[in-house]
C-alpha cells in the first residue's frame, strides 16, 4: 500500500487504485498524479472572474482545468469534472496537453491581454505536480501563475509550488468545523493553515459562498472576518474577501438562492474587520 500525502485524507492505495479525489493513483509503489497533463477545460477569462480584484485588474488570464477534487461540496458547479462518477470518464477523454504546450499557448494569447495561467475549474492541488512543472516554465517566460483552490492540502504541497505562484484565490467556505466536515467533506483547520502559510509569500484573496441555512449568520461572518483581518499579505496589506451569492446547483437544487440583502448585510459585517470586501453573483 502507498499513502497519499496531499491532503488530510491520507488515502492508502493498492497498486493501480485511484484515490478519493479521482486524480491520484498508486503506481510502482508510489502515488502519482493520475490526471497529469489531462485537460478538460481551457478558456481565456478576465482576471476578475477567478475572482481576483486586486491582482492586475483589467487583465485576462488563460484558465485551465483537469478533473478530480478532494472535497464533496453538494452545490459544486463543476461537478461533472470534479466529484461525480462521470468525472472518471474524463481520464480517457481528456485532451493531453504538456506543460510546454500549455505555456506556448499562453504566450500566443498575450496579444489578447493574457498575463499568464490560472489553474482552476477542478481542484488543482490534487495534481500539483502538473501545476508545478507548468508554472515553473511559465515563470521563465515572464508569465504570472494563479491558483484557484479550496486550500485543502498539506503544507508540503504548498512548498512545492511556492517559488512559482504569484496569486491565489482560496475558498474559505465557512467558519465552522461542522459545515466543513458534515456538508463539504473537508477539514477547516487544514484550510486555515494553508491560508496562513500562503499569505506570507504571494497575493491571496479569499472567497466565501453564502449558502442559506449553512453559513449565513452574522455571528459566523464576524468570526470569519475577524480571523481574516489578522492576516497580512507580503506587502503588509490586508487580505481581500469575496462574499458570493449561492444559486441552487447539483444536490442542492431544492435550496433557494441566497437573498441579495443577506449578501450585502454580511459584507457590511465583514467590513467591521476588513478593508477590502467584495460581493459576487448579485
Structure description:
By secondary structure, the protein is α/β, with parallel strands linked by helices. The protein has a single domain (37-280), classed as TIM Barrel. It is built from eight helices and 14 strands. The strands form four sheets. The protein has an eight-stranded mixed beta sheet. A two-stranded antiparallel sheet has the order 1-2. A two-stranded antiparallel sheet has the order 3-4. Helix 4 links the parallel strand 10 and strand 11 (167-171). The protein is globular, with a radius of gyration of 18 Å. The model has no long low-confidence stretch (mean pLDDT 96).
Q: Short description, anyone?
A:
Helix content is 27%, strand content 22%. With 282 residues, it is of the alpha/beta class.
For the structure shown, list the relevant keywords.
eight-stranded mixed beta sheet; 282 residues; 27% helix; 14 strands; 8 helices; 22% strand; TIM Barrel; globular; alpha/beta; two-stranded antiparallel sheet
Amino acid at each position: 500500500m502507498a499513502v497519499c500525502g496531499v491532503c488530510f485524507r491520507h488515502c492508502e492505495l493498492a497498486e493501480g487504485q485511484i484515490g478519493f479525489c479521482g486524480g491520484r493513483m498508486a503506481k510502482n509503489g508510489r502515488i502519482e498524479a493520475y490526471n497529469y497533463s489531462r485537460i478538460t477545460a481551457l478558456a481565456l477569462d478576465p482576471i476578475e472572474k477567478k475572482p481576483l480584484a486586486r491582482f492586475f485588474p483589467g487583465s485576462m488570464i488563460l484558465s485551465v482545468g483537469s478533473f478530480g477534487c478532494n472535497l464533496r461540496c453538494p452545490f459544486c458547479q463543476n461537478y461533472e469534472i470534479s466529484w461525480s462518477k462521470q468525472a472518471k470518464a474524463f481520464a480517457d477523454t481528456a485532451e493531453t496537453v504538456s506543460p510546454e504546450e500549455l505555456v506556448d499557448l499562453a504566450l500566443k494569447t498575450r496579444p489578447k491581454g493574457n498575463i499568464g495561467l490560472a489553474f482552476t475549474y477542478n481542484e488543482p492541488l490534487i495534481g500539483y505536480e502538473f501545476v508545478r512543472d507548468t508554472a515553473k516554465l511559465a515563470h521563465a517566460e515572464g508569465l504570472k501563475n494563479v491558483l484557484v483552490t479550496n486550500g485543502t492540502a498539506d503544507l508540503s504541497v504548498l512548498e512545492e509550488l511556492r517559488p512559482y505562484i504569484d496569486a491565489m484565490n482560496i475558498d474559505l467556505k465557512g467558519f465552522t468545523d461542522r459545515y466543513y466536515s458534515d456538508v463539504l467533506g473537508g477539514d477547516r483547520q487544514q484550510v486555515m493553515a494553508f491560508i496562513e502559510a500562503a499569505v506570507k509569500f504571494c497575493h491571496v484573496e479569499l472567497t466565501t459562498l453564502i449558502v442559506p441555512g449553512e453559513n449565513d449568520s452574522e455571528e459566523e461572518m464576524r468570526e470569519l472576518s475577524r480571523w481574516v483581518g489578522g492576516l497580512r499579505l507580503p506587502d503588509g496589506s490586508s487580505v481581500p474577501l469575496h462574499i458570493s451569492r449561492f444559486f441552487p446547483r447539483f444536490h442542492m437544487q431544492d435550496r433557494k438562492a441566497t437573498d441579495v440583502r443577506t449578501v450585502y448585510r454580511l459584507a457590511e459585517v465583514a467590513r467591521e474587520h476588513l478593508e477590502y470586501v467584495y460581493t459576487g453573483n448579485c
